Amino acid sequence: MSRGTAPSTGSGSILRQPTAVWAVAFSCVIAFMGIGLVDPILPAIADSLEATPTQAELLFTSYLLVTGLAMLATSWVSSRIGPKRTLVIGLGVIVLFATAAGLAQSVEAVIGFRAGWGLGNALFISTALATIVGAAASGSGAAIILYEAALGLGIAVGPLLGGLLGHLSWRGPFFGTAALMAVGVIAILVFLRDDMPAGAGGPRREPTRLSAPIRALRQPALAVLATAALFYNIGFFVLLAYSPFPLGFDAIGLGLTFFGWGVALALTSVFLAPILTARMPRTRVLQFALPLLVVDLAVAGVVIDDPAALVACIVAGGLVLGVLNTVLTECVMEATDLQRSVASSAYSAVRFLGGAIAPPAAAELAHLIAPDAPYYAAAGAVLVALAVVLVGHRALRRVDGPERLEAAEEAEAVAVGDAA
After folding, report:
1. Residues 201, 130: contact at Cβ < 8 Å?
2. C-alpha–C-alpha distance, residues 217 and 167, integer Å
3. CB-hemisphere CA count at 13 Å for 197?
């Protein structure tokens, strides 16, 4: 009997995909570059625009807050105009606001333009995941791994590009992203058909209700996963968004550091996560990986004055985050019978709110208490995520595969019969 993932993982090589899938995956890489792009230039922006660290961190908050809130409407939009138009509009919005951010003259303007960037990001991200899962040739498991690989590669390349261009000017990364996003628009227009298969957010022509993602959160499994992801994302974005300040490196040094972090995340997303979920239930992988992230964040707080040790903690954290990202995404796709675009929108909306809270809160904690306080607070948040997974384990039985679900239901029936 299989001990791992649900049967929807499918079979076949992850590399044997339709051209449309590769076009969306390429655009995903560029879109996810936007998450870490500003990381190496946060100190430079703060210096050039005379902003405080908290104001600089709001570049993450405005972006992630709008992304999260807008996620609640993305399935409603894509079900009416189709995934191709939704993806193109999302990328086009990013091109517009990334260019505007590069031309901005104040930190407040950059914060505002990053919020607009987040709107485009929301339209793109949840639609892209549903489109890849629906169009992939080798099942949802391989499709999710491909999506997470794109995420990891984008997160890795984003800081590196940000560091290289940011070494010339803090405006460079914004213009560079706008140019790459324009290439993504062309790729989607050329390679993605208008009639993507229904079943994963394609144009089913059954318009999704605007309230569908909020109603989806009533599903116990999705509510547990979204709540856990909210607190987990606090740890994720403290490691990503706060660490440039205690490290004290220049733009290139920060770019290289977070390139290493992103590569570690990508490698474990693609290679380690599938190995683990093939050998143990997904929930057990979460219960194993979340405590490792807690330890990593706590150690980062202890070694904060040693840049080399802090870099090691950041890269090690990337290894754990890659596993968690892939397994959580797989869980969301398998947890309910909901349309995948709706499940993705609901889950992403909640988890991005955790990312929005973390960066400015970390800067304020560092200012009010001590520089290491954000790491300890992040470790505490990830502990809460672990507690949510442990308490809600009964709601998550389905994500461990049908055999385990049937066995659990049979065991329950026997127990009820014995008690009768």
Report:
1. yes
2. 43
3. 12
Higher-pLDDT residue of 165 and 278 is 278
Q: Quick check: 301 pLDDT over 70?
A: yes
Confidence of residue 308 (pLDDT cuts 50, 70, 90): very high
Nearby residues of 234 by Cβ (< 8 Å), 6 or more positions away: 354, 355, 357, 358, 377, 378, 381, 382
Burial 188-223 (b: 16+ CB within 10 A, else e): beebbeeebeeebbbbbeeebeeebbeebbebebbb
pLDDT digits (tens, 9 = 90+) for 263-283: 898 889 888 999 999 999 999
pLDDT at 418 over 80: no
For residues 8 and 141, is the Cβ–Cβ distance under 8 A?
yes
What is the residue-averaged pLDDT of the chain? 83
Q: What is the pTM of this model?
A: 0.80
Q: Copy the structure tokens of residue 341.
A: 């675009």
Structural contact between residues 242 and 362, judged by C-beta atoms closer than 8 angstroms = yes
User: In the CATH scheme, what architecture does the domain 14-202+209-419 have?
Assistant: Up-down Bundle (1.20)
Q: For the chain, give every domain's residue range.
A: 14-202+209-419
Matching residue, tokens 């076949």: 12
Let me know: does 320 contact 293? Beta carbons within 8 Å. yes
